[in-house]
Write a structure and sequence with these properties.
Nucleotidyltransferase, domain 5; alpha+beta; 5-stranded mixed sheet; single chain
């Protein structure tokens, strides 16, 4: 919204297309509206979840003129992401200003399938008819820095859990760096919690426990399984952070902001800080809006903050295809009606002029008819040429496909031979390595099993220990030292009354 737009629209309406909820806001207040409707005086803002788009970073030469930047990025995106050339993807970008080099410019490019927009916003458009802005969710966070809600230039990580998605986002020096959709949305948390608990629970009950008690749940079974659940979540988060460090040359993470659409989860920021060893704060900011005490999703408040920024202050990355109708005089139908009205008035007032115009139109029609005949002949000639070239292309493509198939077969054979000769792990050496770790933590080995199929190679170790702490300490040691080699799964730890010891099964799946 530029300065003129800010003075034109009296309200901002934020839209969550995934929950179909709406909030209207003036300069100082936000409130929910249950039945929004079309209005020319309101500016509408919505967002795309991180799993609804593909993002990547693309570099191009600084010698490319500004007018040709989009074409250059579009060509590289289709090539590097192997996109279907038959689909016209929606592509937008923002420049990564701190990543540029002497010869190249870099851009964060966002790609959206056209069907995604049509399907995810169908219900919304039936209600309010148009959307002025649809922004990738991570770019909304720029508003926090512009409005100095966050005033430092450290490396900040944002983690936010929503009903159907969860996002991980990194900003450095107040600029967007990286974003990824996490696999643990609130609904996925609910499913996994029920699996760990061993019984089914209504989603609303789970949501209530998380919102009201958090990780300090009074029910012992619930609390234990919540701790297990968030242990899995932060193991996944830790892997994502490790990737982001490598891929984007991030030296360190200074602070993490974490929260959810149902509000601040009690104990989550302390758990995050203990698990990741980083300064942590709630994703719960004071935006200066009067909410009348209602818990309003942080994303809605970010949209209202974004909607009040001037264009030069924010990331312009608009994916909307649902534009508001232009003024009547600028519409094609409006122009037609105005011309018809003027023509009718002229005809009534000046019959001579009317007949004169009719003659001119007939002459114009005759000229266009003659021009059409010439253009039609040229069109038929070009179509024949194109069809011939397409036939040649198809023949060459068939030959290319045959060569690719033969190449792929040879490549697969060589890969299999290489895996057998070079990459196939020595099981005895692996087991000896694990045995040293077991001895280090005073754990006895009851059984060893090894299974292999086309998808994975799995070692299963039956463990016996006098203390559960030895087993958990072993698991922590293995996940920290061998996470790049194995995926570890630890089954339920049980107590053997007769042997006065704890039993468990550790599975190590070779990556």
């Amino acid at each position: 919204m530029n300065k003129s737009q800010q003075s034109t629209y009296s309200t901002v309406v934020s839209v969550n297309p995934y929950k179909c909820d709406y909030y209207t806001g003036t300069l100082n207040a936000i409130s929910r509206i249950s039945s929004p409707s079309f209005s020319k005086e309101q500016y509408t803002v919505s967002f795309l979840n991180t799993k609804s788009f593909i993002s990547t970073i693309i570099g191009i030469s600084k010698n490319i003129p500004e007018d040709n930047v989009f074409d250059a990025l579009e060509n590289k995106v289709y090539e590097e992401l192997a996109l279907d050339m038959a689909v016209e993807y929606h592509i937008r970008y923002v420049e990564a200003i701190h990543r540029g080099t002497e010869n190249d410019r870099y851009f964060h490019v966002f790609v959206v399938d056209p069907l995604t927009l049509e399907q995810e916003y169908a219900t919304v458009i039936d209600t309010i008819k148009y959307l002025d802005q649809i922004i990738p969710l991570p770019l909304l966070l720029k508003s926090l820095y512009v409005k100095e809600v966050i005033d430092s230039s450290d490396v900040h990580t944002f983690i936010y859990f929503q009903d159907n998605d969860a996002f991980f986002c990194v900003y450095d020096e107040q600029e967007f760096i990286y974003a990824k959709s996490l696999k643990f949305s609130l609904k996925r948390m609910h499913e996994r919690f029920c699996e760990l608990l061993g019984e089914q629970m209504e989603y609303t009950n789970f949501e209530s426990i998380i919102a009201n008690e958090g990780l300090n749940c009074s029910n012992g079974d619930y609390q234990r399984n919540l701790i297990k659940l968030f242990g899995e979540i932060f193991l996944h988060v830790s892997d994502v952070m490790a990737y982001a460090k490598r891929a984007y040359d991030i030296k360190r993470f200074d602070e993490i902001f974490i929260g959810s659409s149902i509000g601040n989860i009690i104990g989550l920021d302390e758990y995050t800080q203990a698990y990741l060893g980083l300064k942590t704060a709630p994703f719960d900011f004071n935006y200066g809006f009067n909410t009348n005490g209602e818990n309003i999703d942080q994303i809605h408040q970010l949209m209202h903050l974004y909607g009040r920024l001037q264009a030069k202050e924010r990331y312009e990355c608009n994916f909307t295809i649902f534009h508001r109708p232009p003024p009547f005089a600028k519409r094609e139908s409006g122009k037609l009606i105005l011309v018809a009205a003027a023509s009718l008035a002229g005809a009534l007032l000046y019959p001579g002029v009317y007949w004169g115009l009719s003659y001119v139109e007939e002459f114009h029609h005759a000229v266009l008819t003659k021009e059409y005949e010439t253009v039609h002949i040229e069109k038929m000639t070009r179509e024949a040429t194109v069809n011939l070239k397409l036939a040649n292309k198809n023949a060459v493509q068939t030959l290319l496909d045959e060569q690719k198939t033969a190449y792929k077969q040879k490549q697969d054979t060589l890969i299999q031979v290489h895996e057998k000769k070079v990459d196939y792990p020595m099981k005895a050496k692996i087991m000896a390595d694990f045995t040293r770790s077991f001895n280090q933590y005073s754990i006895q080995l009851k059984s060893i099993d090894y299974k292999e199929d086309n998808l994975s190679k799995t070692f299963s170790f039956g463990l016996i220990s006098a203390k559960t702490q030895n087993i958990t300490a072993l698991l922590k040691h293995l996940t920290e030292s061998k996470r790049n080699i194995y995926d570890f799964k630890l089954e339920l730890i049980s107590y053997n009354e007769e042997e006065k010891s704890y039993l468990s099964e550790l599975k190590a799946v070779l990556k």
